[in-house]
Structures
1.
Amino acid sequence: MEEKKIPYKIYLEEEEMPKEWYNVRADMKNKPAPLLNPETKQPMTAEELGAIFCDELVKQEMDDTTAYIPIPEEIRNFYKMYRPSPLVRAYCLEEKLQTPAKIYYKFEGNNTSGSHKLNSAIAQAYYAKQQGLKGVTTETGAGQWGTALSMACAYLDLDCKVYMVKVSYEQKPFRKEVMRTYGANVTPSPSTTTEIGKKILERHPGTTGSLGCAISEAVEVASNTPGYRYVLGSVMNQVLLHQSVIGLETKAALDKYGIEPDIIIGCAGGGSNLGGLISPFMGEKLRGEKNYRFIAVEPESCPSFTRGKYAYDFCDTGMVCPLQKMYTLGSNFIPSASHAGGLRYHGMSSTLSQLYADGLMEATTVSQTQVFEAAQMFAKVEGILPAPESSHAIRVAIDEAMKCKETGEEKTIVFGLTGTGYFDMVAYGKYNDGVMSDYVPTDEELEKSFALLPDVE
Ligand SMILES: *Cc1c(COP(=O)(O)O)cnc(C)c1O
């Protein structure tokens, strides 16, 4: 069959956009382990979860049997403002690498939040509004999730309280201003506005904060403020579900041209973009219809999959969130201060964790200097200034393409380009000045953190 000329960008028509999210858990033989109550260590009931999360999102969180869940029309209309996102054939990168591999990337940076996080933010805000709530609270690290949620809340006229990790609040003042422009209330964490924040500040005066700590503060405020619930930008099953829109669009675009990927690559922080991208393809693999290689890429300074333990752990420093079984470095683990490339969460999606434990996907680590080298090469040839997080996937896509060059194989590689890096210029500056260093945690450091894992079987 004559090959159709593949355009630089494969778009979908509005009517080709997904009308349902795909829930990969429905096709998993081994389901992800249930969330546990941090006090009783028993599985969380819907009622208990409902004190923290919106009711409809609790249902989605616990549903591991329904394969397709309709996307409400209002969310689909919001998606239409910035989706479908393009699937780009990286002709220029292929040319630069002189590789026989065919490289595609799904670009999620074409919205003001600059990342894929808006896909779940609008869904979570929508269900909060449906429930008649007044507002939501959340944490943000680098700021992409806080920005996405602020945008979604502005659209639906909901209050939005964001606890932003203090070091980012100070290093990324423009991120904070974007959120405030969308009407969000932004507090640097740890703060004195919560009991847990005060406790952490007492114990660690001068701390620059962590995601785990910001989560605890946001959860505390949501539980103590009538009409508020907590929402989370990654890790949870519901977030992977919403992010499946990435994979469904990717698959629809590839199918249009009869393209079959061999390798699908994504960066992994909490696992939401990777989970979303691979879900429909993983579904085919789980049902025995197709075979693909899936690769999760994580920083060597925060290697949850590759060096973590598969165990129940806390999602937050304050130990108020439900326990989740996942690959984890321990909720006390904080990546080295020299780490600038994002993806610094200690744990991982429980869905992806189960798939990894079952040998259905691979994981690898890269150093941050390798990541920024790939980022710069990509920016020069493909034009887009990538987020450091996304550049983890770029690095491994390039490495796989170079392997094809050696063997002469014409593999098709798809990777997730999750966002843009305009707010990461301090990190780029370090790279450009040649002062970026790599850090690998020692086994001793990790053992210390593992020793504090909760005692649950
Ligand atoms: C948040 C973020 C990530 C990592 O989060 P996941 O939940 O692992 O997808 C990756 N890239 C960008 C641009 C992000 O904002």
2.
Amino acid sequence: MNSKTEAFKNLPSVDKLLQSEILGLLIVRVGHESVKLEARSQLESLRSRIAEADESVLQWVGSEGFLDDFCSAVQVSIEGAFSSSLVPVINLTGTVVHTNLGRARLPLEAIAAIQLAATQTTNLEYDLETGTRGDRDSHIESKLCNITGAEAATVVNNNAAAVLLVLNSLAFNKEVLISRGELVEIGGAFRIPDVMKSAGCTLKEIGTTNRTHLRDYESALSDQTALLMKVHTSNYEIRGFVNSVSESELSELAGSNELPFVSDLGSGTLVDLEQFGLPHETTVQESLQMGADIVTFSGDKLLGGPQAGIIVGRADLIRKIKANPLKRALRVDKITLAALAEVINLYQDSRRLSSRLPLLVDLTRPLKEIEAVAAQLLPIVQAAVQNKAKVVTNSCQSQIGSGSLPLDLVPSVALEITPVAEKGQTDAMLIGLALAFRKLPKPVIGRIHDGKLIFDLRCLTDSEEFEHQLTELDIVV
Ligand SMILES: *Cc1c(COP(=O)(O)O)cnc(C)c1O
């Protein structure tokens, strides 16, 4: 074994390390400075362990493979720091538009547009006709107006931002009337009463949780009222003794008092989903026809595009909204605009839509096709989990998700994996199974329900990829 003195003497200099083949190649990839800093910091910690006479270090330093081993350690650490933590996963949760899994996948047309906008300078805010400053909304405003029939449109970062901006622009320091049954929490920190406060508006709650009548709105009107608002209660449903006021009635009441009526659709869609055999969702067009002066909706929910918040409606109101300094803070970037424009283009031809828009491809996948995938994968997954679980196929219901009605379900097929374990061990086995699938090279995310790990196969786009990586399944319980 080396003595401490010998070990110190055997430590290479930073310069010598940087001349090694391993670190030389790394420098080409990530630059001289970061490699130098990491090599120096690892040498430092080695020095202090030598000073403590750490036996394993004393043995290692000066051993035959030391230099290569040390350089490899530097490489692993740097590659770890440079690697991305945002990775693709396989969504078998049964929720098609899953907020935690990034919502909609984009169509190829949008990806091509993103590449152009990202790699080249563009006329993002430049009017090629006049040679003067332009408006970034111009790239999508007319497209949105053509499709929805709205007079004007603008786009911001997401629908939460759209609601905030609309309220702040049209109702700052004033009252907004909204039904008690619509004071929703969408998830995360988006709660209507909180957004109202952030926007500088006073929420005036109307009616009761289950029943709200037109007369409730009428009696709440005052000279402090700035607007009437309807929020689509997208993630829950109240049933039984219920009443809400229709959009047409609210718009009439607002109109006769010269107030705007704003509708937050949340999961806005631009086509009637029934033509694809899906449950009906109020479209943006319908909402405008029923008299909404402003409609807000998400770009990455049922629309199937990039994260964005879209605001359409009356030209005078949109002008006010665009003049608000908050608009500048909430604006979308060129990448989003490029993608969104292409997604909206697809809506010009609804026959093309269901084969081009990944969201609709997933939602309209024929049951027969999912059944076939399930039958084919059943023995393979059973073999992969060995005797640790029993796998069966079963029919299930996929949720559209992300703010479409919770009752909007689409029939699908799942693999159900039930742990086989000693009594008292089944929960641990279930968690171990789910973890093992999440640790695959392309993590597989299912859903645990009723003591089973459930894989809804509706969104499995590449079953070969899924199958091939199962050799690496490592169930540790
Ligand atoms: C989802 C949703 C929002 C928030 O939209 P994001 O695009 O997620 O910011 C707001 N209102 C309603 C009704 C929603 O469903």
